[in-house]
Structures are given as C-alpha cells and as structure tokens.
Amino acid sequence: MNRIRIAWRLITRRKWTVFLLAVEIILSSVVLLGMAGRLIFIKDAIQITETFQGEDAYYFTPRSYYSPDFEVESYISPRLREKYEKSEIHTVEYEKKDGAFLNAMVYDDFLIDHVEIAMEAGVWFTEYEGEAVPAVVIGGGCGAGEYIELKNGQSCLVIGVISRDTYVAAFEQSASSGMASLENLVASNVGYDIIVPCAGSRYGSIRGGLAEERQPSEIFVIKDKGAARALQEELLQYGDISSIDEMKQNYAADNRDFGITNGIIALVFLVLTMVGIGGLNGIQSLKNAKIYAVLYILGLSRRKCMILEAINTFTVIGVSFLVFLLVDDKIAPLITPVRSGKIYGWMYGGIVLYFALIYLLTSFSSIRTAARCDVIELYRKEKE
Amino acid sequence: MSLKLLHVYKRFGIDGTSNFQEALKDVSLEIEKGEMLAIKGRSGAGKSTLLHIIGLLDTVDEGSYDFDGMAVEGLDNGEAARLRNTKIGFVLQDFGLIEDDTVLYNVCLPLMFGSTPYKKIKQIAADKLDQVGIGSLAGKKAAVLSGGEKQRVAIARALVNGPDYILADEPTGALDTDNADKIINIMQELHREGKTIVIVTHDDAVANACGRVICMEDGRIP
Asked: CB A383 to CB B113 under 8 A?
C-alpha cells in the first residue's frame, strides 16, 4: 500500500505531463481503432469480390420517378425476355409466436448460390441439406440449430449466424451507370434479423409475410452473350446499369487505394504516437530518474524501482484507456468522420499492449540507464 | 559490530576506452561501532567511492568488506537494499530531497518501503523532525526551505529508520558557517547517542569535530 502511495505521488507530481500523455493516449486510441477497423474491413471486403464469379451480370436500378412496383421486364422486347435471368431481394415482416416481429431479407436461389458471406457460426444455405425451412440469423439472438416459431404455425431452422457488421447483398443503392462499385449492392448493419429463401426456392420457404417490399435495385444475368448489348441498351432507357465485373474491378481498385492510403496513414500515425508518447514518457521518466536515485540510496532495490515504475505506467495507461472507453463514442466522429469497418474486442487489447510496450520501453530504459551509472552522480547531474 | 574493509580495490572504466582507472587501491579500514570518523582528501582521492562502498551503494572489485559480521560479497541486491534501508542513514551534500514534496513526506520515505502503517510512519517522521528542531516545517514543500533546513530534513530522514550508521557526504558543503555549525552539532549529538558516523569532508572544522580523521590520497589511505 505504501508503495502504491509512492507510485501515486510520482504520477501526481507530474500531473500535467501525465495529463498530456493521457490525452495523447485517448486520441491515439480513437484513431488507431478506427484505422484498424478499416483495414480489417478491407481484408474482409475482398471476399465479396468473389461474388457472381464468372457470370455476365448487370446491376440495374430503375429511375427514381418510377413507382416501387415498376417491373422493367414488362418493357423489354419479347425477343430478349428469354435471354436473361433476374435476381432481386424482397423484405418481409413476420410475426413470431411470442408476438415479436422479425424483419427478413428474402433471397432468391440465384443470389443464395452466388453471394459469398462470411459466416460467424453454422453454414450458408448452399451447404444445408435438411428438410426444414432454413434461415440465417443476422447479429445473433438465436444460435445455429434452434428453431424460430412463427405465429402462423410455420417454423424455420437457424442453420447459420452472421455478425451484424458483416456485409450482405442488400441492393439498396443505385447502380450509378458505369461508376458503381460492389459496395453499392452490399451493406452492413442492415436493419434485418434474418435471411430466408424466397417462395418457390429449392431450399424451402416461409409463407404468410405481413408486409413485403422489393429492394430498389436488381441483378440481370445474361444467359445469351449475344444479347448482352441489346439488353443493356434497353435497360438503360429505364434506369442505371453497371456490369458486375466492372463493379468488382472498381471495388478492388477502391479497396487497393483505400488500403494503401490507410495503411500509410496508420503506419505514419503509429510512428508519430510512438515518438510522441515515447518522447513525452521518456522525458517524464528522466525527470523521475532522480527520484529513483534517491529511493535507491534510501534502500529501494532497482527491481522494486522497476515495479514502482510499472505501477506508475499501468496506472496512467489504465486510467487513460478507461477514459477512452467512456468517451470513444463521443469523440470518434470528430476525429474519424466515418468509422467504417469492423471493431473487434481484441483490437482494444492490441492498442493497450501497444501503449504498454511504448511506455515500458521508455520507462525501463531510463531506469536501466540509471542502474548502469553511479546513482549519486546521476542524482547530481539531475540536480544541475 | 563494525565495518571492516580489507585490501579493497575499485576500478571504473574510462569512457570511450577499454582502460580502467583505479578509484580505490588496496584500502583497508575498520570502523568501530559508535565511532565518529572523518574521511578527508582532495577531489578525486576516492573519498566518495569509499563512502558508497561502505554504504552498500557500490560493490568492491577486489578485497573484502564485512558489514556487521556479514560478508557483503555474498549479499544480493535486495539484501543490500534492505540493509541500506534499515541499518544506514545517508546525508548528501545536495540534500537528496524530493523538492516538490512536503518535508514530512520526504522524511517518511525510508519507512514506506516496508509494511508499517502510513499513520504510524507519519508519527515517527514528525518525531524525527522535532528531534532536529524543524517540526514546524513538516507541511512545507522541501523546495521552499533554506539550505540549513534542507540538510536538517535530510538528517531527520536519515534517522527515521533508526539506523546504526550515518554516512554523510560533504554534509556542510552547500551551507554557510552558521548552518554548518548547526549540522556539526547535530552530528555530534547523534554520536553521543551511540550512532556510528562517517563523514566525507573537505572542511577542517567538520573533520576536527570527529574522533578520528583519515586522509585519502590517490585512492589510498596512506
């Protein structure tokens, strides 16, 4: 207890340096967490580029002035109608047996067969071979193997779980002719609870949804390559269209640039925090060196001096990090306007370890320096 | 109980070379319990090095050192630190105080390495401050004290653990004559109480106040 009191004195007697260190740790944590999240997102996003591999597919969005019920195929020339396959997403609300509502994204078989989604647990529909109607849960609530009972007497079996921030095909954004990226057809943190197959799907389906809507965009897959140009021209009369291949290329290019830019920024920032925090802590440690010299003369062993410095260090890091956890949500938007990406628990641990490493290296190096020279000479130098 | 050094050598490396300088050469010295000893000599004669070895702040390169019957060569760092803390009180020329802490906290420090309750530590420290005549300064920051007051704080701190040995390195070096006299008087009083006192000094007045004086020259006691 007395030693903690000494460590606390060491902290409070340099309170402005400690305050600056704490602020630097908090700001650095916010930025580093955001960057780590974005870099992880880029890594995960590469998986989406595998979507619709080998298909001559187009992402189409009708012009906004058309009604939600607009069916472009009604306007396509009869000669082209047999030459494509269409994929769309519907959203449906179901009422569960317990009275709660379930918002579902309904995928057709084409989409189920082509999208690549990272599972957190269980399997995707294509790997399911059971008899029950399958469902994939978004963001937990139910585990794989559990049944969801609906009020209309039907039920579905949860075969897989994906995390809330996983990217799924959503078809929410416009195709933005030629300029779209795969990011336009996927979304994370969607406001839906499950993904289920559509009516007539070979995987089985649930009937009796309460409110059904169609997502604004859809995908056309050309079966006859010779008809591609003609179909594109007709679709362009009614909306924006982008080739999935182009979208993948745009997406890959965006991600590459995004990754390089963020990687460089992250690296520069890591070096800056290392120099900033290490330097500031190094100055504080050098100032404390005289005190350690005095404590050594008074009978504290060097090992105990190091323990004292460790208590000192971890108190500053610990308190700063707790403050960071409290204020992160409030100040993160001010520093990193878009915190896109995935934030995992281990990232927080990684950041704490990173700071602890900088602190320990700078603090202990100054004590080691003190240990190597004549402590009274060191004391005298500090005095001067 | 005594301190015995036999044929002690201490060498320091010379910066930037592989050569060594001998700070102590074949030094043998015995300090009896209750003795008040002055070590005199010019700068660089090895007085402070000898005091550091006596005070277990440094180790010998050759020879032997017997501290109250214990061979110092056999002590690990922790044991040496414990002996420094419980058996030795240091008084330094530059006082060795933590300037921006209070006088009382400075005096409490040596006791805070152990498990004595802080309340009791503060009581003991306050008593020691009274003993050296500066009890009223307990709550002041060390930085605002005069040189003489600081040195008395340093002496109170040296006494707080009830050590057998007081080692003082130029205790009057930074003080005027009046304050130097006061410090010498306090040292003599401690000597009368039975403490063993070793003082490194340039000052003849301080040396003359001691029962025995040894002069060092070029790392040796002639």
From this structure: no
